[in-house]
């Protein structure tokens, strides 16, 4: 019986690498699949890993219908044994429901990979619907690490070196260091443990605190918990 499986985690936990490996393993056994992604760092219609691997993919636009796409492929004489769906947090709830329909009515395996929550610690709509509908939700086993060495559990958005907790939910950025002297605000993302996410203490803030002679390493007041809004 086919299943809808959601592989979830933070950034840097290897979800895209696993998506590529899973597609390779299935194809090596003669199975045929379709690969989908949305807003990948490598550009449109590419599924890439930070390890340097990438493959062509179908770009998931907001008006893409998974059911119609798969049925159209089958009607044209194609074969589909599985779907690899990366960056699934960016899919609409309706698209997630279409994936569930592909599993239930066409008996095609769907493997979805995505980040659960955004930089505000709120669930992405696509991830929320996947958690609600998936046959299995599996946490990825590769643990991303916070700058302090603890297991990272939250994603942080950093603008010009400063962690922010307000703004649009989807802003494409990267995890590369901010370029010095950049004319426009640079958006990057960093994974943090809960403690440092709640204190809004990303690696840049931690480095600044460490360089200060007035702040002890264990002084929590260096980056206190922000007051309630």
Automatic annotation (TrEMBL):
GO terms for molecular function: thymidine kinase activity. Keywords: ATP-binding, DNA synthesis, Kinase, Nucleotide-binding, Transferase. InterPro entries: P-loop_NTPase, Thymidine_kinase. It is an enzyme of class 2 (transferase). It holds the Pfam family TK. Its EC number is 2.7.1.21. It catalyses: thymidine + ATP = dTMP + ADP + H(+). Gene3D superfamilies: 3.30.60.20, P-loop containing nucleotide triphosphate hydrolases. NCBIfam families: PRK04296.1-2. Belongs to the thymidine kinase family. This is Thymidine kinase. It comes from Janibacter terrae.
């Amino acid at each position: 019986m086919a299943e809808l499986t959601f592989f979830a985690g933070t950034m840097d936990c290897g979800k895209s690498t696993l998506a590529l490996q899973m597609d390779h393993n299935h194809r090596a056994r003669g199975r045929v699949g379709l690969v989908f992604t949305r807003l990948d760092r490598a550009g449109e219609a590419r599924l890439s890993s930070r390890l340097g691997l990438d493959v062509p993919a179908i770009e998931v636009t907001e008006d893409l219908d998974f059911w119609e796409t798969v049925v159209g492929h089958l009607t044209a004489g194609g074969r589909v044994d599985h779907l690899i769906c990366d960056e699934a947090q960016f899919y609409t709830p309706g698209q997630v429901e279409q994936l569930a329909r592909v599993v239930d009515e066409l008996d095609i395996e769907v493997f979805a990979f995505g980040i659960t929550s955004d930089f505000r610690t709120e669930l992405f709509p696509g991830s929320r619907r996947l958690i609600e509908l998936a046959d299995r939700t599996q946490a990825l086993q590769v643990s991303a690490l916070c700058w302090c060495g603890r297991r990272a559990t939250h994603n942080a958005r950093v603008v010009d070196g400063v962690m922010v907790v307000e703004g649009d939910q989807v802003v494409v950025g990267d995890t590369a260091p901010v370029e010095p002297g950049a004319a426009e605000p640079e958006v990057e993302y960093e994974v943090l443990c809960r403690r440092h996410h709640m204190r809004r203490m990303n690696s840049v803030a931690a480095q600044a605190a460490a360089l200060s002679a007035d702040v002890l390493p264990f002084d929590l007041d260096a980056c206190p918990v922000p007051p309630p809004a």
